Amino acid sequence: MQPPLNEITEKISDVFLKKIKEDFSNIDFGIIEERLKAKYMQDGHSVMILDGRKGIRIIVDHGIDEQHSEINCKTEIRIFEKCGMKITEHTIRKKVYSYVIQPEKEFYQKLEKIPDSEWAELSVTRTISQDILEEIKKTATNIGFTLEEILQLMAENAYVTELRSKMNQEL
Hints:
alpha+beta
């Protein structure tokens, strides 16, 4: 009999964090992101990390079955939670999972004050050629998202990147 999912994710997340060899409270998003990117590349997974209005969305295509994706997703969520970061949502689809984390609470609290209507007006389609748009649509469909969802996330990412740039210039 297999151990319950929570037990599996608990053990795997502990192993991952112990390899970093720091007190979990000292491990920030950047450290985990670099370690996970290295792991994804090593394991041959596709990953997209985009900064959106609710936090940083990580979308990973493991190319394996739904059960393994669920274990991987929930393990990584535990890793971030153990380091004190908040997971605002997660979705598990066939072979693909995505989750949103908030590594900088203060920054995302400011973003939450921006009205929904302002976010809805964001658009990136004017800067994307039709050929590329078709490729994005195919990819979105393959990973269980609509074209509109991916374009909205890309627009949010561009906007948040611009906000961060302005904030850094003001410092």
